[in-house]
Design a protein that fits this description.
elongated; 7 helices; about 0% strand; about 80% helix; mainly alpha
């Protein structure tokens, strides 16, 4: 479900970006056609802009096909009719920019809450109660058959302790790896947000230069397209971070998260 939503959002945004890229290339072609008619550019220059329009038209066809494919898969997973259409595919938001507990705390929470640990501890608890019954009045020492059964209990207890230690190590390794991955997601998200803010500042500067008659409109349009693409990348980072956060939260509770 996580990967399907991420795919649905990504292909939906690719559709929008492909449409914007086509619109931009069409505007460039119209302007270049006017320049060609005025003898300012060569037929080869005009053909290059026409080919760019054609490339973007093909990109829209592919983006539509990709979206429809993942759209049908997502509807199937959600139990909806395969042809059900969404008005839009929105982006969730992240309410924190870091992991709110330490790595050691995360490990401790997982070892306390995970079902695998709980099940082994429960077996140990029941076995100890059974052994306690056998220890009453030293019956496990006085009767041969009970001595043998008690010895089996001791061996089983040691096996369970080994299982508990192995499972604990496995879970600790899993949680520490997941913690670092989530930290990396938050860092990547922060970096992409800073890059987006920087690009938006550049767009504002370029827009002011265009309004002052210093540069052509195409410079503004190209930068606007770059901002749109980077916004999509940031939003995909948001979704990736939320997926990792959800997996991490499950991993340190009852599990499994991955």
């Amino acid at each position: 479900a996580d990967s399907l939503y991420s795919g649905l959002y990504g292909t939906y945004q690719n559709k929008l970006l492909a449409q914007k890229s086509l619109e931009l290339s069409q505007k460039v072609y119209e302007r270049e056609a006017a320049r060609f008619n005025n003898g300012l550019i060569t037929p080869l220059d005009l053909e290059a802009t026409r080919l760019e329009v054609e490339v973007n038209e093909n990109a829209i066809i592919k983006a539509d096909r990709d979206y429809e494919n993942i759209h049908r898969q997502f509807n199937g997973m959600a139990g909806l009719p395969l042809d059900f259409q969404y008005d839009m595919v929105g982006t969730p938001f992240v309410t924190a920019n870091r992991v709110t507990i330490t790595e050691d705390q995360a490990v401790a929470e997982a070892l306390k809450n995970r079902r695998e640990i709980w099940e082994i501890n429960r077996k140990i608890e029941l076995l100890l109660k059974k052994m306690e019954i056998y220890q009453h009045k030293d019956v496990h020492k006085r009767y041969e058959n009970l001595r043998e059964e008690y010895a089996d209990f001791v061996e089983e207890l040691e096996d369970l302790k080994v299982q508990l230690a192995q499972q604990s190590r496995t879970i600790e390794k899993e949680i520490r790896k997941a913690y670092q991955e989530l930290q990396t997601c938050y860092l990547d998200l922060e970096i992409s947000q800073l890059e987006l803010a920087k690009l938006k500042n550049q767009l504002e500067t370029v827009t002011n230069q265009y309004r002052a008659g210093l540069i052509p409109i195409v410079n503004v349009e190209q930068l606007e397209n770059g901002v749109n693409q980077l916004e999509t990348a940031v939003n995909i980072n948001v979704i990736t971070t939320l997926i990792k956060k959800d997996q991490f939260s499950r991993a340190i509770s009852i599990g499994p998260g991955y």
